[in-house]
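Weekly sync, protein design subgroup
Attendees: M.S., D.O., the rotation student, P.L. (late)

Item 1: inverse folding check
M.S. brought a backbone from last month's batch and wanted to see whether the design step gives back something sensible before we order anything. D.O. pointed out we never logged the input encoding, so this time it goes straight into the notes. Structure tokens as presented (96 positions):
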């Protein structure tokens, strides 16, 4: 008996049917995305209005905005995934 006859064949895969929240349509997902973006803009505008009323155009307001920008930049740098493999079609460099 050959080794090829002894190897079990994997079971065929059946299609996966999503249910519940996983079966949302594209329009539903787009609506959720746009709604979240608009809510974010409205909350950002409210934050800026509140900051203008509380701090005005002062050194404290500028310092706060600078600190928030610095923290956001560091967070973005940490969370950014950089590719470790060369891009498609790139030729490796040969040693000279």
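Designed sequence read out in the meeting:
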């Amino acid at each position: 008996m050959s080794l090829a006859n002894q190897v079990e064949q994997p079971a065929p895969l059946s299609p996966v049917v999503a249910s519940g929240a996983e079966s949302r349509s594209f329009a539903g997902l787009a609506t959720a995305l746009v709604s979240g973006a608009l809510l974010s803009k409205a909350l950002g505008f409210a934050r800026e209005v509140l900051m203008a009323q509380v701090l005005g155009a002062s050194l404290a307001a500028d310092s706060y905005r600078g600190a928030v920008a610095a923290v956001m930049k560091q967070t973005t740098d940490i969370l950014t995934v950089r590719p470790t493999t060369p891009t498609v079609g790139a030729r490796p460099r040969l040693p000279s």
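Discussion: The longest helix spans residues 26-54. Residues 27-80 form one domain.
Action: P.L. to compare against the previous round before Friday.
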